[in-house]
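hey
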């Protein structure tokens, strides 16, 4: 019955706020309620699956610890690695676009690096850069470089031949064509890479912390509390990571909508 009510509300809502915010929020609350009922009704042990109320109590009681882990993993590792990896991938895409020689040399190398599993490079980066957040940044840079490179190159070639011919007829230089035509057309591709990298960054930081970190960080907290069978704390850390990652993705999606409102995918 609840499912049917949400379906009717989503289908009949004319207000964008109701359709895009209220309905997903109500659906999420309904899932949490269903989770709580199933855990309590079937008496599932907490070491297998704690209920949302148990997880919420742990979050409230351990807010200071979770805040320190969030600062170590997200604010230091994720944001820094995301900026460096995405920025370097974009700059290299510009260089490759200017030089076909670099395209033949760097693209195969980038594909090779992107194929290396994170569990293979994380221990090496920890040995190279130490146990603190710098090694996690290095892992994230490796993970996010190639998605930005490939998407930015595809976006730079998205401008049509007619538009390029028009810029040439105006005697526009390479940089004028790049800034006024090609980069605006590449924005949807660039934001696609940014959204992909937002999730890769968080995953990379947490997994890299399994291989060495100070006594802080979401990955450290998960691995430590699993060993102690403190599953509520594990789920609390996962919840914080999920919320942080979702908000990060949402900020990028809002930025994409603000800058690429002209794109056909946003036309009503």
């Amino acid at each position: 019955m609840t499912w049917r009510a949400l379906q009717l509300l989503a289908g009949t809502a004319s207000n964008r706020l109701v359709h895009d915010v209220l309905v997903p929020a109500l659906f999420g609350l309904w899932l949490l309620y269903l989770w709580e009922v199933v855990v309590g009704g079937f008496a599932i042990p907490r070491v297998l699956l704690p209920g949302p109320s148990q997880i919420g109590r742990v979050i409230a009681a351990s807010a200071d610890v979770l805040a320190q882990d969030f600062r170590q993993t997200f604010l230091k590792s994720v944001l820094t690695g995301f900026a460096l990896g995405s920025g370097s991938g974009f700059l290299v895409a510009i260089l490759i676009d200017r030089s076909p020689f670099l395209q033949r040399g760097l693209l195969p190398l980038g594909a090779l690096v992107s194929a290396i599993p994170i569990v293979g490079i994380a221990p090496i980066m920890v040995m190279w850069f130490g146990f603190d957040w710098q090694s996690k940044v290095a892992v994230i840079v490796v993970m996010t470089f190639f998605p930005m490179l490939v998407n930015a190159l595809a976006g730079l070639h998205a401008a049509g031949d007619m538009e390029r011919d028009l810029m040439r007829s105006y005697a526009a230089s390479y940089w004028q064509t790049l800034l006024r035509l090609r980069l605006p057309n590449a924005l949807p591709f660039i934001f696609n890479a940014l959204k992909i990298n937002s999730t890769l960054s968080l995953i990379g930081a947490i997994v890299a912390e399994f291989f060495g970190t100070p006594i802080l960080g979401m990955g450290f907290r998960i691995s430590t509390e699993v060993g102690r069978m403190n599953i509520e704390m594990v789920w609390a850390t996962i919840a914080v990571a999920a919320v942080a990652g979702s908000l990060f993705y949402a900020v990028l999606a809002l930025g994409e909508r603000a800058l690429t409102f002209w794109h056909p995918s946003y036309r009503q």
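The chain has a mean pLDDT of 82. The two ends are 31 Å apart (CA to CA).
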